[in-house]
Structure to design on (930 residues):
């Protein structure tokens, strides 16, 4: 059947998630060994059988294949040969190619001739002959949809034809619903089952069909549709615009569109009343616990009443584990759709009565059964919402708090609960539009309470920084709300503690030590004492160089008891970032990332886990992994409109690009960070950009630029207070200062590092302190300091930092003419840089190693040297013996600029000193001539 080799539809009309099925059909009909073939497609209702048939038929038509189509129709199922009539209409004018007997029989069968009813075998043979003779002129593809609805006579003819196509130019492709009765006999024919779409294809189809649906609602629909394409396309049409945008407004059981009702509800409507009641209770319960369903229906129905539903294949009941499951989730939706409001409330009350020991489920059912304000139920839902949040179900918490607000008799309580729902939405849920709506509702219900509520203020501050507002405005709003609050600085007040956690971040984002003064005062006033996690974060995240070491024992306790609460995991991670302790509970962070990917963790917490894991991987030298996590974080920010947090991930990407030698990418990313952060007063982000810029400049040998960025991050001679990333940039600043002739500044900074106490935070930071002390110590006195740095316990966990220190050590040893030891350090540094992919450092280290008299691997040798015109002029003048000052005077530049250029030139030429310039330039000239 190789005439049908191109039946698969082209990419322009590609069906989402059906590439494998279409490829199979293409292969089946394109197999040169099969001349003539028949294939049956099967699948559940709505799985996309018709769409696949359409795609195949369209592709065949475009490739010159004649397509004959028929589809079963219920009201024609009792009309003999109605389907054959539909199929052969395009060939009515070709009947004369048959002999008289077969022509007349076929004309009578399809209703265009008169005479006695023809024999079934004669009709079948006539149809086969007609198709074969027609296919001589042009290949044919017979496409039949909904086989079970075709009349019995047509099914018999098609079964006869499908088995007699070998050697012809005819393809036969038909589809039927799985489990349906049919007069078509499939035995002996190849069958392909169309499976439901996988999760990623489902999400893609839903996004294409309904781009206005929010990510959270999209995930809910994908879960409910269970890969059914029709359900994916139709379910959103039954939701209001508000429901499509916000998950909290979506009913617990999704409503059905008219098409879905026609598909599923019709199968439920004919069940006995008691069967439908059991199914309604099961659908509203949602757990599949048959014991709970039986208990709720006690006295009105029993498990035996499920038999009719089982016979119709609507549900399955497992006797082993006492579980009831719907064959498809939308069957449950159909059951709920068909029930009256009073029937639904009765089922909810019955479930609440039997779930007394399960607060969250009982509260939810009581809420759904309520017909008016009820403070008792509202309070239960409020507590249920907080429990859901602790479990990581932020969106479930928003839904519970919103329903709680709706049942609150007092406007103040309604406003307070809406404000808390809004805060949970922005802080965890990832539904910012929903949070904004809830916040507006809180203020509308009770304006004064809505404005004074700490949850409302925190939600407002969060929304403000994420949009066009600035850090200063958000900071003042939250500080004012805390100062004016009626909380008495009670450390057990959840709204106050949440507001303080957010204020920590606002202070950190602001990058100004003055911002921390009110926060410190607030925390000191907490009674009886500050919560442990909040206190530790204050010490290790605010100004850890000075206060972090004292909090390390308490941080260790927090890490040991981190647990699985997503909020706690991320906040312990926040406390662990600068003491380099993220690796001690990396398992919890990874688990949170996986939960986020599966849609079972709050979006904000997923983002936080990605940030921490990305930073952890960067310092571990797992740069590709860090970059991938950063890319994932940026996609998440875009999907959920968390614009504020994009800079974290851009920083990770910029740092990775910088150390790998991709200066252009690093510069573009940091420029984007600075352009975004500056007008918003997010100076903390600007400091991170400075760190990435300094790293990139060091890699390229632009030490003057590196020094300027390092100085912006932290002035020489001091570790900038409340700018914790200044600790990460200390060695960069010291190196840049030394390379540009600023020995005093370098020494002052090394002394400040030791005085700050930053080395006590982690072995990595102590490595930096000792290395900088060694760099600023003259001659051989530096050697013991380098050795101490490299012998620190666990230092090898940070391969990039260690390799840089080995490079410094090797440079110093070579200048001291301790050649053997120098080569050892430089070789180890080179190996590490090569494993990491730190190309600029590979070049520098290789040049230093060659200067020690040892050859380097080919991979480490510089390729074609490309000096700029200015660099070539500076190198030529330096090679004549002129000093930097003399060169500067001739070229009208500063002597520091000349020094920076020379440090850039040396690695390019594969040398490490002025003395080698003349020979290097000679080789360069010889290479150019060659």
């Amino acid at each position: 059947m190789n005439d049908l080799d191109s039946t698969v539809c082209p990419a322009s009309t590609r069906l989402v998630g059906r590439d494998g099925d279409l490829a199979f059909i293409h292969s089946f009909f394109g197999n040169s060994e099969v001349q003539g073939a028949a294939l049956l497609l099967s699948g559940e209702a709505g799985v996309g059988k018709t769409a696949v048939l359409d795609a195949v038929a369209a592709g065949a038509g475009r490739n010159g294949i004649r397509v004959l189509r028929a589809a079963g129709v219920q009201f024609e199922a009792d009309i003999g040969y109605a389907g054959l009539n539909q199929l052969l209409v395009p060939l009515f004018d070709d009947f004369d190619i048959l002999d008289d007997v077969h022509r007349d029989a076929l004309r009578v069968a399809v209703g265009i001739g008169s005479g006695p009813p023809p024999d079934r075998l004669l009709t079948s043979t006539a149809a086969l002959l007609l198709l074969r003779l027609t296919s001589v002129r042009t290949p044919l593809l017979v496409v039949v949809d909904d086989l079970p609805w075709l009349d019995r006579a047509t099914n018999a003819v098609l079964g006869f034809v499908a088995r007699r196509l070998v050697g012809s130019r005819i393809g036969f492709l038909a589809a039927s619903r799985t489990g349906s009765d049919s007069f078509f006999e499939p035995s002996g024919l190849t069958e392909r089952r169309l499976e439901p779409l996988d999760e990623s294809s489902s999400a893609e189809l839903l996004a294409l069909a309904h781009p206005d649906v929010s990510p959270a609602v999209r995930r809910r629909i994908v879960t409910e549709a269970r890969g059914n394409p029709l359900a994916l396309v139709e379910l959103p049409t039954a939701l209001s615009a508000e429901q499509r945008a916000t998950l909290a407004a979506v009913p617990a059981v999704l409503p059905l569109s008219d098409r879905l009702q026609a598909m599923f509800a019709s199968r439920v409507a004919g069940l006995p009343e008691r069967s439908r009641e059991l199914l309604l209770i099961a659908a509203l319960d949602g757990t599949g616990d048959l014991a709970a369903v039986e208990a709720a229906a006690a006295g009105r129905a029993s498990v035996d009443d499920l038999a009719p539903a089982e016979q119709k294949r609507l549900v399955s009941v497992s006797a082993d584990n006492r579980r009831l499951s719907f064959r498809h989730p939308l069957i449950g939706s159909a059951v709920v759709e068909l029930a009256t409001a009073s029937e639904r409330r009765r089922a909810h009350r019955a479930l609440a009565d039997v779930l007394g020991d399960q607060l969250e489920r009982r509260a939810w059912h009581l809420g759904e059964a309520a017909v008016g304000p009820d403070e008792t139920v509202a309070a239960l839902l409020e507590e249920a919402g907080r429990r859901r949040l602790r479990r990581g179900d932020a969106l479930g918490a928003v839904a519970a708090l919103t329903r709680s607000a709706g049942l609150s008799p007092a406007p103040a309580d309604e406003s307070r609960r809406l404000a808390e729902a809004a805060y949970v939405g922005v802080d965890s849920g990832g539904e910012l539009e929903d949070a904004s709506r809830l916040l507006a509702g809180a203020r509308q219900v009770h304006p004064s309470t809505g404005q004074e509520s700490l949850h409302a203020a925190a939600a407002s501050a969060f929304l403000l920084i994420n949009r066009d507002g600035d850090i200063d405005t958000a900071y003042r709003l939250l500080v004012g709300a805390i100062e004016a609050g009626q909380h008495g600085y009670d450390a057990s007040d959840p709204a106050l503690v949440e507001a303080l956690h957010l204020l920590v971040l606002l202070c950190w984002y602001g990058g100004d030590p003055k911002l921390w003064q009110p926060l410190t005062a607030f925390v000191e006033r907490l009674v009886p004492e500050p919560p442990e996690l909040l206190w530790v974060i204050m010490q290790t995240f605010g100004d850890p160089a000075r206060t972090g070491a004292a909090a390390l024992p308490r941080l260790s306790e927090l890490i040991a008891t981190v647990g699985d609460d997503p909020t706690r995991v991320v906040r312990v991670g926040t406390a662990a970032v600068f003491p380099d302790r993220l690796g001690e509970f990396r398992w919890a962070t990874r688990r949170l990332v996986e939960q986020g990917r599966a849609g079972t963790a709050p979006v904000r917490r997923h983002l936080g886990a990605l940030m921490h894991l990305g930073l952890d991987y960067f310092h571990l030298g797992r740069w590709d992994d860090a970059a991938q996590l950063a890319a994932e974080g940026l996609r998440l920010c875009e999907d959920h409109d968390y614009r504020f947090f994009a800079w974290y991930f851009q920083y990770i990407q910029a740092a990775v690009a910088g150390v790998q030698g991709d200066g252009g990418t690093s510069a573009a990313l940091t420029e984007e960070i600075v352009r975004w952060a500056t007008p918003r007063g997010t100076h903390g982000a600007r400091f991170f950009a400075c760190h990435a810029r300094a790293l990139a400049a060091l890699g390229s040998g632009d030490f003057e630029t590196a020094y300027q960025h390092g100085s912006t991050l932290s002035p020489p001679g001091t570790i900038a207070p409340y700018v914790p990333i200044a600790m990460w940039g200390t060695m960069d600043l010291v190196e840049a200062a030394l390379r540009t002739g600023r020995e005093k500044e370098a020494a002052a900074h090394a002394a400040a590092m030791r005085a700050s106490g930053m080395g006590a935070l982690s072995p990595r930071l102590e490595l930096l302190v000792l290395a900088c002390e060694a760099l600023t110590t003259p001659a051989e006195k530096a050697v013991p300091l380098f050795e101490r740095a490299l012998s620190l316990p666990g230092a090898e966990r940070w391969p990039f930092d260690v390799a840089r220190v080995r490079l410094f050590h090797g440079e110093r040893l070579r200048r001291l003419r301790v050649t053997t030891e120098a080569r050892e350090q430089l070789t180890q540094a080179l190996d590490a840089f090569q494993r990491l992919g730190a190309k600029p450092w590979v070049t520098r280290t290789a040049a230093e190693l060659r200067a020690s008299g040892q050859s380097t691997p080919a991979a480490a040798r510089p390729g074609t040297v490309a000096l700029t015109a200015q660099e070539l002029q500076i190198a030529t003048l330096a090679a004549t013996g002129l000093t930097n000052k003399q060169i500067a005077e001739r070229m009208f530049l500063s002597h520091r600029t000349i020094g920076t250029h020379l440090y850039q030139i040396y690695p390019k030429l594969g040398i490490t000193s002025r003395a080698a310039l003349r020979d290097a330039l000679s080789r360069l000239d010889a290479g150019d001539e060659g």
Notes: The longest strand covers residues 170-177.
